[in-house]
Design goal:
- By secondary structure, the chain is an alpha/beta fold.
- It has a single domain, classed as Rossmann fold.
- The chain contains 6 helices and 9 strands, in the order ββααβαββββαβαβα.
- The chain has a 7-stranded mixed beta sheet, sandwiched between helices. The protein has a two-stranded antiparallel ribbon with strand order 1-2.
- A hairpin with a 5-residue loop joins strand 5 and strand 6.
- Helix 2 crosses helix 3.
- The longest helix is centred in the first third of the chain and has 12 residues.
């Protein structure tokens, strides 16, 4: 699909076909959504689909998770006319932070951090990331927000896999993703 083509009928998830499969090996995610972000209508429809379940919900700020969650998170924040908070991998913020260790989708131990002065008690945060595979990264972001007294208003990602961690997040928080139910098994199996 080229970056200018817009289908006549745009059902939820049509833009998923813009994603490219991994050609570099097991240290990379199995799909690369970056081409979706280059497609103006695809990006708009993706963000609209992510935000649709939160229509009318109280959201004070959007937080995007390092690094690809920054793209969707900033787009969602602009659409909602809210501020954007970057939740970073450790070592990138030069201000006072709180840190949370986690294990990412590839099994690597990492640390995530967020600035301490951006979240006040009761602030309602929509957490956005590109993908929730095992749930480790998103759960670390949830812990950071909650440790600072914030409230997780929701979790949004292009795909939330039905892994143990993905299911836990969906059971405990309002969630949104872009994969239609008929395609979910293919995404869960990385096909």
């Amino acid at each position: 699909m080229d970056l200018c083509h817009v289908p006549a009928t745009r059902e939820k998830g049509w833009y998923l076909a813009l994603m490219a499969p991994n050609v570099k090996g097991p240290n990379y995610a199995w799909l690369d959504p970056s081409r979706l972000y280059c497609h103006p209508q695809g990006l708009r429809d993706c963000v609209a689909d992510l935000l649709q379940p939160f229509q009318g919900d109280a959201i004070d700020m959007v937080a995007g998770i390092d690094a690809m969650g920054f793209i969707l998170g900033a787009a969602a924040a602009a659409t909602l006319q809210k501020g954007f908070l970057a939740i970073r991998k450790a070592g990138h913020l030069c201000v006072q932070t709180v840190a949370q260790p986690y294990t990412d989708y590839s099994g690597r131990e990492k640390v995530m951090e967020v600035r301490t002065d951006a979240i006040s008690p009761g602030l309602r945060i929509l957490l956005v990331d590109q993908w929730v595979e095992t749930g480790g990264t998103m759960r670390a972001a949830i812990k950071l927000v909650e440790r600072l007294g914030g409230v997780v208003a929701g979790v949004a990602a292009i795909c939330m896999e039905n892994s143990e961690g993905g299911k836990w997040i969906q059971e405990h928080y309002k969630c949104s993703h872009c994969v239609p139910p008929r395609l979910q098994p293919r995404f869960d199996q990385h096909q």
